[in-house]
Design goal:
- The structure is a single chain.
- With 269 residues, the protein is mainly alpha-helical.
- 65% of the residues lie in helices and 4% in strands.
- Strands 1-2 form a two-stranded antiparallel sheet.
- Helix 1 (4-32) runs antiparallel to helix 10 (214-266).
- The longest helix is centred in the C-terminal third of the chain and has 53 residues, at 214-266.
- The protein is elongated, with a radius of gyration of 26 Å.
Length: 269
């Protein structure tokens, strides 16, 4: 008789097998097509995730369908490592995103962000020279600030900008630049109001804007902080789901051992 736990673990691994094949297929499609840099960035992680999921799914399927206890032991070990890894990663994301809040600007619907308000790890490993060149190229490829260009001053100042839009698509408010449109600002004849590097880096060239500014990097980190916090919640839910699957797999392994024992006992009257 097919045990309920074996049937359930088989079904779950069939679903994960389909997902893994889809992930591998999409990553290979990205590799063979000329996509944007943003798409290329996810190609390798997606391929690694797909191959890992495929490996786990095959272990679970063969172990549960063919009643191979050895493969189920490996499957359980890999799942245990995955649970520990996800838990550590979730804890890490909470720690490194603990700092960082936007500063409200009087009379503005948006906030502005400072690079020094974020953890040193995020500053060192996320917005370093090599990584920032890729992020900046991605923003340019996507024409990230283009949708703001047509707004008038009244609309723009009331607009709730995302952290990245606030940091990258306009100069910081303390520079004292004059608004022409959302992505075109005039420098006063007397120069910037404060001698800050972000004020001198601002360019009305639509492929440059404030993409090299500290405020832009801070905006990207603020957006990343919000997404990583959401990811931590999702990871927590995934951990609970994997623990449930792990429990079902333990039952399937116990059933395999019990069935093996019964067959062994039945062979010797």
């Amino acid at each position: 008789m097919v045990r309920v736990s074996n049937g359930l673990i088989t079904f779950l691994n069939l679903v994960s097998l389909i997902i893994s094949v889809a992930a591998i297929g999409y990553s290979l499609w990205l590799y063979t097509h000329n996509g944007t840099l943003c798409q290329k960035v996810i190609q390798k992680p997606l391929l690694i995730l797909g191959v890992s999921l495929l490996f786990m799914s095959l272990l679970g399927l063969i172990g549960s369908c063919c009643r191979v206890s050895f493969l189920l032991w490996i499957y359980l070990f890999v799942m245990f490592v995955l649970i520990v890894g996800l838990f550590c990663f979730t804890l890490f994301t909470i720690i490194v995103t603990n700092k960082g809040v936007g500063k409200a600007i009087s009379g503005r619907g948006y906030k502005e962000y400072r690079l020094g308000d974020y953890s040193r790890w995020l500053q060192k490993y996320v917005v370093n020279g090599n990584n920032w060149d890729e992020i900046k190229s991605c923003l340019v490829d996507l024409h990230f600030c283009h949708k703001l260009a047509g707004e008038k001053a009244e609309e723009f100042y009331k607009h709730s900008l995302s952290p990245t839009e606030s940091g990258c698509c306009k100069p910081p408010s303390y520079c004292g630049f004059q608004f022409e449109n959302a992505t075109f600002w005039t420098v006063p004849k007397s120069g910037p109001a404060v001698p800050d590097s972000d004020c001198t880096m601002w360019s009305n060239n639509q492929t440059e804007l404030c993409f090299d500014c500290k405020s832009c990097k801070a905006g990207v980190l603020a957006n990343m902080r919000r997404e990583w916090r959401q990811l931590a919640i999702i990871n927590f839910i995934i951990i609970i789901i994997i623990i449930c699957i792990y429990s079902v797999a333990c039952c399937a392994l116990r059933n395999n051992r019990a069935d093996g024992y019964q067959r062994h006992k039945g062979g010797y009257p």
